[in-house]
Amino acid sequence: MLAGCTVGPNFQRPNVAAPNDFTRANHAQAPSQPVEATLAPEWWALLGDSELVALESRLATDNLDVQAASARLLESRAGLRIAAAEQYPTIGGAASYNREQASPNGIVSLLGVNPVGAQPESASGDTAFGVSSLPGTSGSPPYDLWQYGFDASWELDLWGHARRGVEAANAAMQASVEDRRAVLLSAQAELARDYIALRATQTLLDITNKNLALARDTVKLTRLRLTEGVTTNLDVANASAQVASIEARLPPLQTRRDALINALSFLLGEEPGALGQTLADARDIPSLPARAPIGFPSELVRRRPDIRRAEAQLHAATAEIGVAQADFYPQISLTGSLGFQSLELSSLGDWASHQFVLGPSISLPIFQGGRLKGTLHLRKAQQQEAAIVFQRTVLQAWHEVDDALSAYDAEQRRRDHLKEVVQQDQLALAVAQQRYREGAIDFLNVLAVQKDLLNAESDLAQSQASAAVNLVTLYKALGGGWETAFPAVPSAVEHAESVPLKAADTATVGSAPQ
Fold this sequence. Notes:
Elements: E1 12-15, H1 23-26, E2 33-35, H2 50-62, H3 64-85, E3 90-100, E4 143-156, H4 161-227, H5 233-247, H6 250-267, H7 276-279, E5 291-293, H8 300-303, H9 305-326, E6 331-342, E7 354-363, H10 371-437, H11 443-478, E8 497-500
Parallel strand pairs: 1-8, 2-5
Antiparallel strand pairs: 3-4, 4-6, 6-7
């Protein structure tokens, strides 16, 4: 019966239409194909790097952002417990001892107690009545007052004020759950990106050092040809300048390598350079899988933590409308107290010293200056905002997935073209060096081909890293990666009724007949 009296709209889960398939995945042309298959929670294992897997396994427990999100979840759970307490009676106990004396010039003089220096008489000036002073004294005598007892109160939740508050607090807790999952997913993606960037930087350092050794050999060759009289100092100077130019590339790469190791250490809650020994040895850039399972379109809304969080926030905003509407109705409370009071400690436990109060109370808002209506309008506007935010979050998710699929396919095709560029530049350099030794071409041609090869190899390494990063971005957009560390938990949001969500009528999302 009480549930039937609950005012305010009942939350109804938005039912968002999903496309039948991932169109971009069906038109992919790159070697690593996204396929609609069950999405593995530990998607980083697809990159085939055991070191990355080991780092990711530590993230859920060691990352400070995740720990802070876990603390916020504990806060929201405590808030839920506080809100739930409003549904139950409150019982308290108290005991006291007081030594008291009333002022003879105060209201006790109305009872006939004579003031100091005056004769006992009544308030009307006649003979004294009521409590009088002791012989040889004036005013009311001091006395001891001993008392203890219990009191209880219970506000009857006839209109669902407390129940809607609990519903809102539960939804807020669910939002905190999803926030922690979102933080973990972001941290997982950031760690994978930084790790790939580190391996790419180490690869660039290796490429630069190899080209530096090649350039130094070229300097030796030009000097040898100078001693033989078949070239000039111009070739030696150009070759030496090429060495210096390549050497200038090393310090920024070394700085970036150290910064990325520090970034990975920070993500795992370690001090600067803590992972230096672990990550010092260079490894290849993680390779892409032949097939990348991306789940199914119908799963996206239920997997992405930000969408789940937006839905929970919409639920909380809907429940707050019921709280605001309940304030318009009378508040009925049952109160009572039982206690013992005595002027003597020895008689405090006697049943004759007992006293009690029992009875209902009712309060009805008559004039609040528009506060209640203003609060209700505010809660309805907040629900409309939450509905719009939910729609925006869902739409943004589809855009992010579509963009990630496009970027993943395009970068792979760019990488394959760069592989061809590197192969051709390597062949061109070998021919140019041979022709230069034979004296058939000028040394500037050799320098140009060397620069082209260095740039092409660097571009290829960066493209390989970008393709791997794009895969990370794709899985982040798909919302995978939190299931193992933070599995789903039952909540009011999980069991809410599903209804269609109309894009043109967001103001009515979550509303239902009272």
